[in-house]
Design brief:
Blueprint lengths: L1 H21 L5 H7 L1 E6 L8 E3 L4 E3 L1 H13 L2 E6 L2 H9 L5 E7 L2 H4 L3 E2 L4 E10 L14 E5 L3 H8 L3 E5 L2 H9 L5 E5 H8 L5 E3 L5 E9 L4 H17 L1 H8 L8
Parallel strand pairs: 1-4, 1-5, 8-9, 8-10
Antiparallel strand pairs: 2-3, 5-12, 6-12, 7-10, 7-11, 7-12
Length: about 260
């Protein structure tokens, strides 16, 4: 019986994998026919995505950019909330039309999904407690850092041989540092600035962990949709539209 059950589970897993491998993202015409662009995001990444008000509306820099893109495409923006690692998995399996969550373009990710042109150049920073003896990357050896699961912070620290403690949300990664459960927290720069301003005796170190380009992600099969969005994004970058959105949030824009 156990062998039969194991075989059934193995076949079910294989079917899921085959389904994911065969999944294709929507074309431009299919999105326009549907009348909406379904976008997956993890809204715990201010100022790019966060929840606002009693109705927990998703707001932020990327939301504003995507709303403008959807208006140009002539479709509605539909946002679906989830953990960050589920955003990437969902796009790869074509469960959603687009992913936005401060997603860094990396070579491994490009093997599994499509990316628009980068619209912003970000950095991963190191956050520590006031008075910490950690002054830069070199001091993280033999230390433990908190990161958000599935992010380039997790991958980058792992590549550097730094012990990581992953969390589904950045708020939990920050809490681990304030509680003394880790020695440092690695996170994107603008998110760090906003969350460290909340207090709790934390500071951002001067030395960055990495510099990274942000873009929007799509499943393979959406090539013509990405091509159209690239045209729109390039226009926004060149005419200052994206810079203006950053300024509305009180943030400095770094052109990719």
């Amino acid at each position: 019986m156990k062998k039969i059950l194991a075989l059934i589970l193995a076949l079910a897993t294989l079917c899921c994998l085959l389904t994911a491998c065969g999944a294709k993202g929507k074309t431009l015409d299919e999105v326009k026919e549907a009348g909406k662009l379904v976008v997956a995001t993890s809204p715990d990444f201010p100022p790019f995505e966060s929840l606002e008000g009693k109705d927990k509306k998703v707001v932020g820099i990327e939301v504003d950019i995507m709303e403008k893109i959807c208006k140009e495409l002539g479709v509605e923006l539909e946002i679906v909330q989830m953990d960050f690692d589920s955003v990437l998995a969902g796009i790869q399996a074509a469960k959603y039309d687009c992913g936005m969550s401060g997603i860094t373009v990396t070579e491994p990710r490009k093997e599994n999904m499509l990316f628009t042109v980068p619209y912003y150049n970000a950095a991963q920073v190191i956050v520590v407690k006031e008075g910490s003896d950690i002054k830069g990357k070199a001091d993280l050896k033999d230390k433990t850092v908190s990161v958000q699961t599935g992010t380039t912070a997790e991958q980058g620290c792992g590549d550097e041989g730094i012990a990581v403690k992953p969390f589904n949300a950045n708020a939990d990664a920050k809490a681990a540092l304030t509680a003394g459960k880790v020695d440092a927290w690695v996170v994107d720069n603008l998110t760090a600035i906003q969350m460290v301003e909340e207090g709790d005796g934390l500071k951002i170190l001067d030395e960055n962990m990495t510099d990274e380009p942000y873009a929007f992600s799509f499943a393979f099969g959406s090539e013509d949709l990405v091509e159209e969005i690239d045209k729109i994004l390039k226009g926004y970058i060149n005419d200052g539209t994206i810079e203006e959105i950053f300024e509305q949030y009180g943030e400095t824009y770094v052109k990719p």
